[in-house]
Design goal:
There is one protein chain. This protein is mainly β. The protein has one domain (2-148): Distorted Sandwich (Glucose Permease (Domain IIA)). It has 2 helices and 14 strands. It has helices at residues 21-24, 106-111; strands spanning 2-5, 10-12, 31-36, 41-44, 49-55, 58-62, 68-72, 85-87, 94-95, 100-104, 118-122, 130-131, 137-139, 144-148. Strands 9-5-6-7-11-3-2-13 form an 8-stranded antiparallel beta sheet, with no helix packed on it. A 3-stranded antiparallel beta sheet has the order 1-14-12, with no helix packed on it. The longest helix has 6 residues, at 106-111. This is PTS glucose transporter subunit IIA. InterPro entries: Dup_hybrid_motif, PTS_EIIA_1_perm, PTS_EIIA_component. Keywords: Kinase, Phosphotransferase system, Sugar transport, Transferase, Transport.
């Protein structure tokens, strides 16, 4: 089982509240989403693993069991071309749960006209594979969002 931790502090809102049909429809995979605090912060790795995909606005960490977890920093933030994001690790790096991966400021993302809501997705998983999935409530970075059985 893989425990997936929150990469950010904020309010969990669930995937169905993400203002993007690909995420809200769980087309990428099941998971949940966080409406982050509007302050500069580091997005943390939700699991121990290896960074297999790294963009300023999104990253995927694959754990020892080969499970990929996507953290997407905001919606449509790819359109910002990396502005407002600072990469703190490199693709192929091993990371520990809670290690800073990307520095960003959700308030500046919102000021740029984008939603700062952050989906956290279990890639290539089924909804039935997730347990103890958090759909609402306040979280701090490092709190458990779900378990992947």
């Amino acid at each position: 089982m893989t425990t997936v931790s929150s990469p950010l502090a904020g309010r969990v809102i669930g995937l169905d509240a993400v203002p993007d049909p690909v995420f809200s429809g769980a087309m990428v995979g099941p998971g949940t989403a966080i409406d982050p605090l509007r302050e500069p912060s580091d997005a943390l790795s939700p699991v121990d693993g290896v960074i297999v995909s790294l963009h300023p606005h999104a990253f995927v960490v694959v754990d020892d069991e080969g499970r990929g977890i996507l953290t997407h920093l905001g919606v449509d933030t790819v359109q910002l071309n990396g502005e407002g994001f600072e990469l703190l690790v490199g693709k192929g790096d091993s990371v520990s749960r809670g290690q800073a991966v990307v520095r960003w400021n959700p308030a500046s993302i919102e000021e740029a006209g984008k939603s700062p809501v952050c989906p956290v997705i279990a890639l290539e998983a089924t909804a039935e594979a997730l347990s103890e999935l958090v759909h609402n409530g306040d979280v701090v970075a490092g709190d458990t969002l779900f378990n992947w059985k």
